[in-house]
Amino acid sequence: MPSHPKLANEFVKDKERAKWHDQSLWFVRSKRDKAVHQLPEWELLREQASKIKSYVVSHLPDLLEEFEKNAKAKGVHVHWARDAKEHNEIVHSILKQHQVKRVVKSKSMLTEECHLNPYLERHGIEIVDTDLGEWIVQLQDKPPSHIVMPAIHIKKEEIGELFHEKLGTEKGASDPQYLTESARQRLRQKFIEADAGITGVNFAIADTGGFVVCTNEGNADLGTSLNKLHIACMGIEKLIPRASDLSVFLRLLARSATGQPITTYSSHFHGPAPDSELHIVLLDNGRSEIADSDEFRRSLNCIRCGACMNTCPVYRRSGGYSYSNTVPGPIGSILGAAHDTKANSSLPFACSLCASCTDVCPVKIDLHHQLLTWRKEIRLKGLLPLSKRLSMKMMSWMMQAPRLYQFVGKMARKIVPYLPRFLVYNPFNAWGKQRELPDMPKQSFREWMKQNHDRK
Amino acid sequence: MTASREAILNKLRKQSIPETELPDLQQPELTQQWITYPDPRQQFSDLLASIKGLCLQVKNVEEVNQRLAELPVYQKSNNICSLIPDCGQPTVNVDDVTDPHDFKDIDFAILPGEFCVAENGATWITNDGGPLRTLYFLSQHVALLVPASEVVPHMHAAYEKLHFENRSFGTFMAGPSKTADIEQSLVIGAHGARSLTVFLVEEPF
């Protein structure tokens, strides 16, 4: 898999676009701040959410069994999948049993993680992503670049072009109102024609056996209320113990995600509708391994609001695709490294350790600490690239020889200002890409200390 | 399938994860901190307006009818249905409908809501999952009638009212359907209702 720096390099080549992407996300982050400041008890809510989620991870098997028991009592079919392959097979077997040809799906990062769409398409089933952003990237045959705003990286003119080609909208039209209306008409047709609805799960409640799905568009509700078959796919970490815990999470989720006080629809499903079937697939796919790790367990607290991405200076300037992971940004770098350390070894380095992600996380995941810990793990596993290994080694060697360090510093202060650019800014100076080195100071800290304090 | 169930549960059971406590959300140290509003109805009304919905505080169903008649989207609607007795001028009888697809041309639906939440402008609606559930999402425009006394300040109070034994479906509806997936431009009317009007009704209906 290409490394993050390599892919990010592609993204930043278009300076205008990188700037626009950065500003779009900062706009969302600002909306989040405004919404958060409306609630004086915000920090208290974060604390409760964090405690509830930590409890969940430490009681996962009991809560899963409790959820299963209560869901079954309400007539829900509960399935268990160890990995993505099994998940897809289960979903396919249910659809096959009902002779389903057309499925409408509301946004679910879990089915993205499992690559459910191509799997079902290979088996002759049409599957339509009905979240507008997700449908746009589906029409482009691409994955989402953000977990809450899947098409945040695409310009309206490009969407206009795509819709013109695929839906026959007017050429050159790029008005969001017009494009959304066209999508509404087409997708409503898809809802009417579908035989089954698939949704993700935002929260599953152990003590009631129900679950909650949050959308702004109403697509999960249309997809499930018009059909007699509803399949919900969830990661095992999505559980919460009690229905009353939702009061905490629903206050945090949309405010953190988009700055809305709550999503337009927060739908609670408790059992199938009359004459209908409701299935739920519980997926592990590496989550139990994360639960077992003292260092990274807290990453399972994540409620997928995307706040850490919106605030991350690296994500904002490198785009979601530079992460090559279903979940990008800070939380994605942790989860990606946990899922496949070798393939994702560059992700924990896509971080300036500024800690902004940790500050905004509604469930108090210590994201930047975990990213730093991942760096150590990656070094221990011998997965650091040669350039990093060598420079670290040289640095360590120099740091252990104080006189050499002093000498090198002195020489650098004297010589660097007079060097031609090509000697300072070249492929060996990764730091100097996209930015200028600061001016060399006149004296070192040691010299300054000697002059000003040592004499006293 | 059961093999996977056992495998996942066994794997989780073998782990020794330090136990943590589940916080008591009813403890006064917390509940005293939750936000309150001097006038929850007004707060709800303002909040709903900020998310592009409309709240009208009225005395009775008769007044609802008057206000409906003034709504341009209602005036333009051809296919109207109502689940509230004597409310609106329904043109479609929904009682005999068994297939929710038959609702695809409903322009305006007048439906019951149970209670409202001041902090976020949401209204709780509930349904047994039968065909009428679709009306909340498939209709072009939706009006909800809620008793004016049923406005709670925040989500904690909301969940004190909620039980999930009898109804298979319920949702918090907060404003009309919307999306900002094209360059963050807010567009009202994505898949669901293009407008949401909540009537807080003083007298029983």
Automatic annotation (TrEMBL), chain A:
Residues 292-314 form the 4Fe-4S ferredoxin-type domain. InterPro entries: 4Fe4S_Fe-S-bd (IPR017896), 4Fe4S_Fe_S_CS (IPR017900), FTHF_cligase-like_sf (IPR024185), Helical_ferredxn (IPR009051), LUD_dom (IPR003741), LutB/LldF (IPR004452), LutB_C (IPR024569), NagB/RpiA_transferase-like (IPR037171). Keywords: 4Fe-4S, Electron transport, Iron, Iron-sulfur, Metal-binding, Repeat, Transport. One of its GO terms (biological process) is lactate metabolic process. GO terms for molecular function: 4 iron, 4 sulfur cluster binding; metal ion binding. Signal peptide: none annotated. The keyword Electron transport applies. This is Lactate utilization protein B. It comes from Gimesia aquarii.
TrEMBL record, chain B:
It comes from the Bacteria. Residues 102-201 form the LUD domain. Gene3D superfamilies: NagB/RpiA/CoA transferase-like. This is Lactate utilization protein C. It comes from Gimesia aquarii. The gene is lutC.
